[in-house]
Amino acid sequence: MKCPSCEHVNDGGNFCENCGARLVTGEVAAALPRASQPGAEGAAVATSTFTAVQQPNAHVENVKNVSKMYFSFFLEVLKKPVAATRNTNREQLVNGLISIGIFALIIPLIIYLGLKEAGVDGEFMSMVIKPTFSYAIFILLIASYSFAAIKLGKVPVKYTDVIARFGSMLIPFLALFLLAFLMSLVDMGLYPVFLGIGFLGSVFIVPPLVISSFKKDEPSGLDALYGTLLTYLAIFITMGIMAAYLLSTLLELIEEKLTSLFFF
What we know:
Layout: H1 26-31, H2 40-54, H3 58-79, H4 81-85, H5 93-117, H6 124-152, H7 159-169, H8 171-185, H9 191-204, H10 206-215, H11 224-246, H12 248-263
């Protein structure tokens, strides 16, 4: 029998004749746990490492799943915006927030790329990231004004329901933004027009649609028309306060592109 320590070949017995180590017989070796047998630990580590490598990253898989779900939702709403979002509630909150996030990002990104192409250099953080937060806050404020108008209409609704539906109804105008972004990449001069239509539509068309969609089954409380007017009033006040951050650069870009398109 071969000693597991010094590899001396013994004629028999329970201990090694050379080093005195206990000899492991076939029965004892079979009774030992797999991890304690020679080479088992290395095999277990190798198997664990292989499994860890093969196992997909949970965060990456979650991002993929959310992206697929949002893309399907995007196409569904794009086909029939009002019908598809009529009963949207907090279950679609993630999709609504994604729409708001993309919406807020595209405007400063297009402006940044346009100015960079024109030879105007600027920091990505100051020209894209910070304005993105400003646009996101602006859109959330409009959604909040719509929520207030709905509550004045005595509709028992949660804030998350309104945010989800508002973000979902942004999708047609978000599609115009995406189209404007693609046009800007190939230097098509009309992209500011699509950008402006998308922005104005999201500000002045989405709120009354959201308010009326919640208010349609509730006759009491503030009428949807007056709720919309109050929402517009709040929007104009907000735009006046935030104009320097939201509209000035956009309007200058639209004016510059239209001038070069029609007069040169």
